[in-house]
Amino acid sequence: MSNAISTAWLPQLPLSINKMARWDEILSLPVQNPPTLEFSAFDLIWSKIEGHRDNMDRLALVPFARVDDFVRGESNNKDCPTRFHVEARRRRPPKMPYKPKVDGILEYILYWCSFGPDDHRKGGVVRPSRSTYIPKKKSAGRPNTKRGCTCHFIVKRLIAEPSVALIIYNQDKHVDKKGLPCHGPQDKKSVGTRAMYAPFISEDLRLRVLSLLHVGIPVETIMQRHNESVEKQGGVCNRDDLLTHRYVRIQERNIRRSNFELDEDDDVSIGIWVERNQNHVFFYEDYSDNDPFCLGIQTEWQLQQMIRFGNGRLLGFDSSFGVNKLKCPIQSLVVFNSENKAIPVAWIITPVFSRSIDTHKWMRALFNRVRTKDPTWKIAGFIIDDPLFDILTIREVFQCSVLISFWRVRHAWHKNLMKRCLDMETRAKLSKTLGQIVKEMCKGCGNVESFDKFMDDFKECRDFMDYFKAIWCPRMGPWINAFKTLPVSSQETSSALEFHHNQLKIRLLNEPDPFIYKRVDWLLDKLATKIQAYFWLDEYEGKDDFSRYWKDEWTSGLTAWRKSRAIPDTDVLTEGQTVKVVDQKDREIAHVVWNPGSEFGICSCGWGQKGNLCEHVFKVVWYFREKSSGSASVSLLQFNRGLIDMLKCPPANSFIRDHAVSLAVWVNEQLRGKFGKSGRGEMVNSCTRMEVDS
């Protein structure tokens, strides 16, 4: 709860003593903001204050941005499921001048239970303005479900504080004018009818249906699987079980008839899309003399995932996607689910030339949006893959540490090694040397001269060296500084980021017409519909029921890191300087891994030949470290170096040092408990093994 609203800035206009006392009491109430995605009246503390005609009003103050969360929470009442609709709304025009008054209202909204206020039951009362209603053969205008429910509440947006909403909830019982239950389980007359349940399907089912339709699942298949699940559970239990074939067919028709091209002019079409999809836009800045175009997209589902998997955990950033194909490349923010797979939770779309200009604006807007939903939300760290990214802004906005991931660098080096060097042994030597240089830099040693020596030692590989000198030598300064000053993210995180990048590539860049990539309105539409549908279905437990319709775009599964954990040690065969790993699908095939135990290993499998991190390299790394014969990871080396720096603190900071040591020991014990004693060669007693200079 926050402090009460300050009204010192408001002029003291003449009000009656009782009215002034009432508003003083209202504005002294705390603004309540429950840390849940949605909340109901049970989650708020209500105050009784004298209102109109000496009646006692039941009041509470909440952030205006969370009114929709309150409406959803009230609708999902387990004792009486329903849906609230806007029965009346009055809104002061934005440009209309007004005097700042204590009791001034910017917006008035009346929410009413969808089973009222009219009563279309036999003998029920219908308001005069609705008496001319003629029943029509339509699905859900739902006048036939009107049962005279009197439950309603009022939301007022205050001039004194536009960010706050005053909720007046006097009629909180789902009863008719006689005081009897009129719908839900408590109404005996609604047993066996749809009045037992909510008037509409849940948001989760609606999103599931739309996602399945977007990826090409037929209507008949969706209904067949749905009916089978209802029969399996023993019949209808809630409103979702009453899903109709007609509803799904209408949604399929709407998707089929939709068109991303809202105007021939792409810029005009973007503006129309933004206006129609305000709920999906957290930041928008059109082209101007001072600022370039920038658009931030986040759907409601993505916001929920960001709150769920981002709180207290890592947030990743894919800094560039589609630079060579799309008119405006994509920057993706991702979180990591329980399987440590990356889920995109926001997309930032800007032209190439403006990618580093508006970082603070869109990042602050995104952070504020999340904190509005959950004031306690805070990430543990932010992972970047570009050393030129605005690190100071990240630290200012998110108040967290920043990590660097070099998966993109490794991917580019590895891919070009495969392309420009024909001899596998030469590839392995080049990769091993690059890995050693990176590791030395992460230890705080090494500089540009290390790469100069590397190019001299392997100057016979002219094709690769020409590429390296032209592309990477100009970029190595920022990377060297990042390796020395920022902690490096783990291999598992790098694997998840690379897997997400490849998923997005398969799902987005699959259009038969290449000219469509030059339209931004197409990109916006596909991200908010099909692309979200694929990632939503990745998290859907029942996706295997539709496996016969899977296409390449629906490719999911585990990351290479997770796949490596399923390979048994018996499938790893050491042969001299190389290691063979038996393929898990075709056991007659064995993949050869060079530089075994190194993060810069090279594998002969098809996935590794494309420059990707594969499960065979990861398995060999695990295999050698468990036998205490593999080199420590870069992350562990930096962890140990950080402990050494802490232990070198002067006596004046001995408290900080002692706290750091105790925290390190606790982390060490957690790692031992998670990974077992098999990893003792790498992590056990890491504190006692380090030598500290006196």
Outline the structure in words:
It comes from Lactuca virosa. Keywords: Metal-binding, Zinc, Zinc-finger. Helices cover 39% and strands 14% of the residues. The chain has 23 helices and 17 strands. The strands form three sheets. A seven-stranded mixed sheet has the order 7-8-11-10-9-12-13, sandwiched between helices.
The portion of residues assigned to helices is: 25-40%
Distance between the termini: 50 Å
Our estimate of the beta-strand percent is 5-15%
Largest sheet: 7 strands, mixed
Radius of gyration: 30 Å
Count of DSSP helices? 23
Low-pLDDT sequence parts: 8-14, 677-694
Mean pLDDT: 84
Tell me the number of strands: 17
Strands across the major sheet, in which order? 7-8-11-10-9-12-13
The shape, in one word, is: globular
Alpha-beta classification: alpha+beta
Characteristics of this structure?
single chain, 694 residues, alpha+beta, seven-stranded mixed β-sheet, 17 strands
Write the layout of secondary structure elements.
Blueprint: H1 17-27, E1 47-50, E2 56-63, H2 67-75, E3 84-91, E4 105-113, E5 152-158, E6 164-171, H3 203-214, H4 219-232, H5 245-257, H6 266-276, E7 281-285, E8 294-297, H7 300-310, E9 314-321, E10 330-336, E11 342-349, H8 359-373, E12 381-384, H9 391-398, E13 401-404, H10 407-420, H11 424-442, H12 448-457, H13 462-471, H14 476-485, H15 491-508, H16 520-538, H17 560-564, E14 572-575, E15 578-582, E16 590-594, E17 602-603, H18 606-609, H19 615-626, H20 634-647, H21 654-675, H22 680-683, H23 686-689
Parallel strand pairs: 9-12, 12-13
Antiparallel strand pairs: 1-2, 2-6, 3-4, 4-5, 5-6, 7-8, 8-11, 9-10, 10-11, 14-15, 15-16, 16-17
Helix pairs in contact: 3-5, 3-16, 4-5, 6-16, 8-9, 10-11, 10-13
